[in-house]
Amino acid sequence: MESIDQLREELLAAVEQAADLAALDEVRVKALGKKGRITAEMKGLGALDPDQRKATGQALNLVKDAVARAIEGRKSAMEAAQLDAQLAAETLDVTLPVESQPQGRIHPISQVIDEILVILGDMGFRVAEGPDVEDDWHNFTALNIPPDHPARQEHDTFYLPGAAGADGSPGERRVLRTHTSPVQIRTMQAGGPPFRVIVPGRTYRSDPDATHSPMFHQVEGLLVDEQTHMGHLKGCLEDFCRAFFGMDDLPVRFRPSYFPFTEPSAEVDIGCTREGGQLRIGHGGDWLEVLGAGMVNPNVLKNCGVDPENYQGFAFGMGVERMAMLKYGVPDLRTFFESDLRWLRHYGFASLDMPSLTGGLNR
Amino acid sequence: MKFTLGWLKHHLETEAALDEVLDRLTMVGLEVEQVTDRAAGLETFVVGEVLDAKQHPNADRLRVCQVATGTETVELVCGAPNARTGLKGVFAPSGAQIPGTGITLKPTEIRGVTSNGMLLSEREMGLSDEHDGIVELPEDAQVGDRAVDVMGLADPVIEIAITPNRGDCLGVHGIARDLAASGLGSLQPLDISAVAGSFDSPIKVALDFTPETASACSKFVGRTIRGVKNGPSPKWLQDRLIAIGLRPISALVDVTNYIAYEYDRPLHVFDAAKITGDIHARLARPGEKLLALNETEYTLDPEMTVIADTAGVEAVAGVVGGMASGCTDATTDVFLEVAYFDPVRTAMTGRKLNLQTDARYRFERGVDPDFLDDACEIATRLIIELCGGKASHVVSAGAGPEWRRTLDFRLSKVAGLGGTEVPDTEAKRILEVLGFGIEAETDRRLTVAVPSWRGDVVSESCLVEEIIRLYGYDRIPARSVVRDEALMGDVLNADQKRRARTRRLLAERGLVEAVTYSFLPAADAARFGGVADGLKLLNPISADLDVMRPSILPNLLAAAARNAARGTSDVALFEIGPQFYGGEPGDQEVVAAGLRVGRTGPRHWSGRDRAVDVFDAKADAQAVLADLGLPADRGQIIPEAPAWYHPGRSGVIRLGPMVLAAFGEIHPAILKAVDVASCAVGFEIFFDKLPAAKPKKSAAKPHLELSPLQPVARDFAFVVDQDVPAAKIVGAAFAADKAMISDVRLFDLYEGDRLGVGKKSLAVNVILQPVDKTLTDAEIDAVAEKVVAKVVKATGGELRS
Q1: The domain B205-398: what is its CATH number?
Q2: B534–A123 CB contact, under 8 Å
Q3: Are residues A171 and A308 both part of a single domain?
Q4: Do B27 and A256 make contact, defined as CB atoms within 8 angstroms?
């Protein structure tokens, strides 16, 4: 028995002394392999008498198990150490900065138009569009602004020469539309009532005032059917202003005004305060004009072939940049068109900032 | 339009306080722009009388005054040269704050004499810069009365905006009429009693026009007033004129200004001694000149109406009078002109002469065509009251324009259009106070006569507006607008949705949206194809915004240059908007243009940042087209692009003959011209050229076939001539077996000495998707052979060994 104990000691010592996985495997082969020492001892059992064979066999099996366990344990430890070493060698400085994803932005004009479309779209308005270059009739005459009307002088119109005739005769002078209202005319001429459209678009005025811009954007609205009256106009624009500025109780005021293409006409103010020189929208006893509106003038309907005895409705218009300035606190109109990346990143919106009724209209 | 509260109350009997008047003005459509309470901060100053003024014992320029203040007599020190015994001035007691200096007074010892209060200059009162002496009040001012009352400052000045249709409210009386109709008080009637004439006017009037031009001046009323004494007008009149910013000149001139503002009735007074012969209105003769009252000489043309005598032009009708026949202090006989001038012609004349006057402002908006005779009497009475004299009989020519008009009016329209029920009695009251006549009424249908001063009221809806405007817009109940079944459908149409998607997609790809002007400098346009004559603005706002843009790219390049100048040289911008190819309505198309300049990002330790190249622009264009339903393998890439791109590094994406997009490096010559120092690549997507979006019958997606069989991939490298386009190899490989080859990806490009001059190697990864059974090696080899054969045949190259 002493030799088995000795064998066990020797083998376990060899396992313990194996320096690496290769050496350990060598130990395993020498102990447990086909020609290994335990295997050899096992083979020698046949020469023993049955009692001795049984006892020695059991003892050898215990040794075999012990050695196998020792090898497994040693192997796990070595693998763990090796992995540790490998991982240690693979260490990276995770404080290094990542590559920055270029951030695109949506221009506030586009964003505000999208917001307006969401609100008015929910009221059943659909988008209509028209050309930037207009003829005099669509931009003025059809809108009840005849050639000698004083309102024409207030429009500061840009002119284009118009296409010359085949014989070289000068063409009819064209205008850059001074408002989006000519699209009202084109919409009504193109189909029959009822009409319910909104018209976002570029408009142009040659106002030399340094705080103005020769180009700006408007959103026009037109609703014509058999029964819509001034009360609906009030409801539509009150609801709109409160949704757009995100204030359920925003004061909204309708005040008589004048536009050639509407009658009655109104200007729409929202509540604000100017305390401390700071404009804040909401309650506070002061007012800020945001929209022009009115019931479509019967002459305009007639000019579009719509019978004003049977149809009536309202129209309104607002300046997109002005709405953006008020809502998002942009101080200067002209900066909208300068394409200064610092400005665009600051006042612009992420591509995922999609205004919606479910996700909200404010960012 | 400016007036004072007191002046208004002269025409409107009302108990309403200032705030109520202001609120009502705005709510009837006469928007209050500014209110100036000139008395604010001056209320504690009183009339003080200098009982005694003595030289200061210790100062040459100072006087010691005993001043009676109404409650006491105080001693004060005053440095004003006009401080003298008997003077009545504006006294500020100790404790008062002086508006002009901000100082609060307290008893102060000045060189040994205690000064208790102060006599004020206009500057110290904050009224003007006048500081040469202290204010001198009239001798009859009562000591102890509020100085603001004595000085006519207690009356707040109101400024309102007048819309172009409401010329009638360019007179205080018209404003009072609107307020009365709104229920704020009652309108005081005009005193239009005639002033009896005592002699025939030696100056007669005539209208000298052809029938075609007769409307230029359709009525002229006048009269001579003899024996007037011109001089300063009385204080009440001066106070009103000063309050609204007019300078009092002389009684005769002030009367005409006053009546313009009181009744919206401009008129003119000539010095009769300087009129030669009779007066007539006619069109100017070519080149006629007039030295006007503003000391400027104007050259007139035959489109302009003038008032002339036998010597020549004496006034530009409805715009400005002449210097030669103007009234002076020496004037003793005057001729009063009250005429009706055509609004359009007056406006045109004023524009041509570049001359804005109170008269022109009123005539061009249309003054009351039936208020000439009465105005003549009112003016005559006022002149005689202020200047004395005797009036002649009235002379007159012409009948004035036809203005009488009746309108059919259904009272039901007030609620039907205006959206609120106004009691019929109230509706009719409003109309009548406004001067409308109700001539007949049956079943709530009225026949309404429009007053002469309301040329703007021409239809039933005008009458609805009048009634609800004065009843109050705030009394119209709001009714929400809800979706209409008959108008269901998406808010955006297919084209608009494409643009909206593209905008978000490009922003998602790291491009920043810009909105730039539709116009640009002609030089910029020229580099991008130039513009037709029809796109050159006749009146550009500035020389560098003079043509409509033929492309968006030049604006983005200019933006890139500006950003570089501000320190941002890596730029990624896009814009979606119109570009123009002709000057007629509709000669425009919608384009998404993008520009990347410089590097892909800031310098990074990984070294993965790099200069932008043509493939960045191509990727942008293809991403947009793919999102719009045109995957990259459907469009054909043709290496021909517009001249503003680098000829060897650009292309267009075509579908059949239609160019859907262009991309490439921007031509270096253009970059140099527009001061962009780094490499720039751009793309343009022509939305209007895209195949129309087909409306989908159903939202359901097409049936999905998922093969259970694993795809097989094989790589092939080919050596071809340098000028063989990669697309040719990919296309040929695809064509080798259309049923089985599901994808061909080009993954390697090698150009090097080992291949020989003029050669390159391109490697593709071909994916075979088995259809119904796993492929055998022999089948795979067969397809591979076909791929090689096709590519070799198409390119003339060979399989790289």
Answers
A1: 3.50.40.10
A2: no
A3: yes
A4: yes
Looking at the complex, does the CB of residue B580 fall below 8 Å from at least one CB of chain A? yes
Q: Determine the distance in angstroms separating the CA of B516 from the nearest CA of chain A, rounded to an integer.
A: 5
Check A339 against B506: CB less than 8 A apart: no
- Residue A80 belongs to a domain: yes
Residues 6+ apart with CB under 8 A from A188: A195, A222, A224, A301, A304, A305, A306
Chain A contact for B533 (CB, 8 A cutoff): yes
Minimal C-alpha gap between B416 and chain A (Å): 6
Fold of the B712-799 domain = Alpha-Beta Plaits (3.30.70)
- The boundaries of the domain holding residue A66 are 2-90
Q: How many domains is chain A built from?
A: 2
Q: Could you tell me which of B204, B194, B327, B219 has the C-alpha nearest to residue B268?
A: B327
Question: Closest to B473 (Cβ–Cβ): which among A132, A196, A254?
Answer: A254
Residue A84 shares a structural domain with residue A125: no
CB < 8 Å to A129, chain B = 496
CATH of B494-689, one of 3.30.70.141, 3.30.930.10, 3.20.20.140, 3.30.200.20: 3.30.930.10
- Cα(A148)–Cα(B332) distance, rounded to whole angstroms? 41
User: Running DSSP on this structure, what letter comes out for residue A4?
Assistant: H
Contact B419 A229 (CB under 8 A): yes
- Pick from B305, B209, B234, B228: which is nearest to B270 by CA? B228
User: Are A237 and A310 part of one and the same domain?
Assistant: yes
CATH number of B46-150: 2.40.50.140
Q: Splitting chain B (801 residues) into consecutive groups of 10 residues, what average pLDDT does each group show?
A: 95 94 96 91 91 88 90 90 90 90 88 89 86 88 90 91 94 97 95 92 95 95 96 91 92 96 96 94 95 94 95 94 92 96 94 94 94 96 95 95 96 96 97 96 96 95 97 96 76 93 97 97 95 92 93 97 94 97 94 97 91 96 94 86 95 94 96 92 96 83 88 94 93 92 94 87 94 90 94 92 76
| Cβ-defined contact of A127 to B496 (cutoff 8 Å) | yes
Q: d(Cα B31, Cα B29) in Å, to the nearest integer?
A: 6
| A242 in Cβ contact with A248 (< 8 Å) | yes
CA proximity to B686, closest of B642, B633, B646, B634: B642
- Per the confidence metrics, is the pTM higher than 0.90? no
* Chain A, chain B: beta-carbon pairs less than 8 Å apart: 284
Nearest to B473 among A154, A255, A297 (CB): A255
